[in-house]
Amino acid sequence: MTKYDELAKILFEFSYRDEMLDIPFKPRAYQLASESVGALKDDVETTWRKGGIKALKDLPGIGQSIAEKIDEFFRTGKIKEYEKMHKEFPVDIWGLSRIEGLGPKHIADLYKHLKVKNLEGLQWALEKHKVRTIPRWGQKSEDKLARGFALMQRASGRRLLGEILPLADEIVAALKKVKGVKHCTYAGSLRRMQETVGDIDLLATSSDPIRVMDAFTKLPLVESIHECGKTRASVRLKIGIDADLRVVPDNVYGAALQYFTGDKRHNVLLREFALSKGYTLSEYGLFKRSHGARSAKPKLVVCKTEEEIYTAIGMDTPPPEIRVGADEIEAAQKHKLPKLIPYSSVKGDLQVQTNWTDGDSSIEDMAKAAQAAGLEYIAITDHTKSLGFINGLDEKHLAKQGAEIDKLNKKIRGFSILKGTECDIRKDGSLDLSDTALASLDWVGVSIHSAFHLSRAEQTKRIVKALSNPYVDCFFHPTCRLIGKREPIEFDFDEVLAAAKKNHVALEIDCYPDRSDLNDLHVRAAVKAGVMLSIDTDAHSPDHFSYIKLGEAIARRGWASKKDILNTKTAKQLFAYLAQK
Ligand code: DGT
Ligand code: CA
Ligand code: CA
Ligand code: ZN
């Protein structure tokens, strides 16, 4: 937990305390302040450093008394009032509040009667059926809490975007066919193309919501139904992820889509900004507050699209991929959003494995599949000899492979196959092929497959040395992380960026779903540093070319434009670029 998360947590727990004590208005103020700190993070401290309590009060959701607490926190590292409260009420409010339906009064009851202080304590109380013994709770409340607890535990298991996206497309296609449905799309983290997603959020507009609910809950993909009302339903899919559906009237589709796309921090900041412009914004619509009589009802502004909303409150529309609640809001207000690389811009794939090593298909089959997927060229980049367990290629085999590629290039029309390699970077930073062999290739990628745990300094030195070999064109899957399986290796990213820039080496965005490497933050730093990027699938099978979209999404999330991505060039342009290099 960073110190800003710690501060957001403290403010949040104050809101629950005041609600337990029935103090009016205060809880909402603390909650807003907590959301604000959670979204603004280090910007809060920067603001405080520049202008103290007075400046803090200019931030969204922060008034005098809360500003004083934040000031104390940054000065002393703690808040006395919080320490005192925690002594009297030593409960992990923040953790417990993650359970759906568990409000402040419930948390107070659980502590008072069962001494439940945290999630472990609650699990015990549920297993021993103690919860129903609390006055006025009963078995029904206990069952509901048990369901909420199970739901929360499951929700912490996130799934890869690449795995879930095809499924979401399938559901959307099915719902679009239901009579009365006008719009249907997925929202949430899926629409923002985050590398992992917690669940599938779906949104539809229809004149006949019940018909949509019915069709949704009866989809063959559905395992069980959590809840199903008139306009919202939540189900468990057979592959083990939840899907939520909302159906709204067509005239508020834009507002609903904006809300359910998130992310939450983006929405908090946007709501604050809308307020400052005389609007209130919610999942139910954009409303103009009237200046007249206090009792006058706010007026609904029709918003069929998201653009209408963002435009109405005076800003450009940030693409979903960059809605993270950071500087995109300010950029949109100043009309300074970047022109993100459009999907389907990548023209060739510069990392492809074949059955010469650990791929499952021939060079020819991979080339044909790439062509069918709309690409103009691929580079064949099989592993090298250090990776003996998959028959990595030595210089002799590489030359043989080159001869086969020459033949195929004559045979296949309107498509180019580059002779390449994924040359292993040895522990000392030297490369696994001779310079003569590297010089014979069109495209040299290098990457790490061993000694992941070198010290940061050693790892940096190893990479910088590899990138300074004059034949190297690209650094493949730079951090080596595998989502949910392997932590990224540690190195000084700025130093590697500098080496890449100096040596005209591109950095890869590896699209393979559990790699997604580089990630969005790295991409943003690379774009800022003017380092070229390459979006490659790392295909081991003909159907992997569909992963390109995932890499384009990472590039978009990193604010990259078309010009930042090497393989948006045509084959001809790419050859010219490589020749000049
Ligand atoms: P996930 O499911 O963990 O991958 O992430 P999301 O962003 O899809 O989150 P989810 O499914 O809980 O909610 C979908 C969207 O609904 C979220 O991105 C923004 C909106 N939303 C949900 N809860 C809140 C909230 O408490 N406040 C605001 N402002 N928006 C919310
Ligand atoms: Ca979601
Ligand atoms: Ca959801
Ligand atoms: Zn590799």
Q: What sort of overall outline do the alpha carbons produce when their principal axes are compared?
A: globular
Q: Unreliable segments (pLDDT under 50, ≥5 consecutive)? A: none
The CATH topology of the largest domain is what?
TIM Barrel
Please report the number of helical segments.
24
- How far apart are the termini? 45 Å
Helical content band: 40-55%
Classify the beta-strand content into a percent band.
5-15%
Examine the secondary-structure arrangement and name the CATH architecture of the largest domain.
Alpha-Beta Barrel
Query: Strands of the largest sheet, in order across it?
Result: 11-12-13-14-15-16-17
Structurally, the number of domains stands at: 4
Total strand count, please?
Answer: 17
Which class best fits the helix and strand makeup? alpha/beta
Bound molecules: 2'-deoxyguanosine-5'-triphosphate, calcium ion, zinc ion
Major sheet summary line: 7 strands, parallel
Radius of gyration: 27 Å
Topology:
Layout: H1 3-20, H2 26-40, H3 42-56, H4 64-76, H5 80-88, H6 93-96, H7 104-114, H8 119-127, H9 138-155, E1 159-160, H10 161-176, E2 181-186, H11 188-191, E3 196-197, E4 200-206, H12 209-217, E5 222-228, E6 232-237, E7 242-248, H13 253-261, H14 264-276, E8 279-282, E9 285-288, E10 299-301, H15 306-312, H16 328-333, E11 348-352, H17 363-372, E12 377-380, H18 395-411, E13 416-424, H19 435-439, E14 443-447, H20 456-467, E15 474-475, H21 493-502, E16 506-510, H22 520-529, E17 533-536, H23 548-557, H24 571-580
Parallel strand pairs: 4-7, 11-12, 12-13, 13-14, 14-15, 15-16, 16-17
Antiparallel strand pairs: 1-3, 2-4, 5-6, 6-7, 8-9, 9-10
Helix pairs in contact: 1-2, 2-14, 3-4, 13-15, 20-21, 21-22, 22-23
Bound molecules: 2'-deoxyguanosine-5'-triphosphate, calcium ion (2 copies) and zinc ion (ZN).
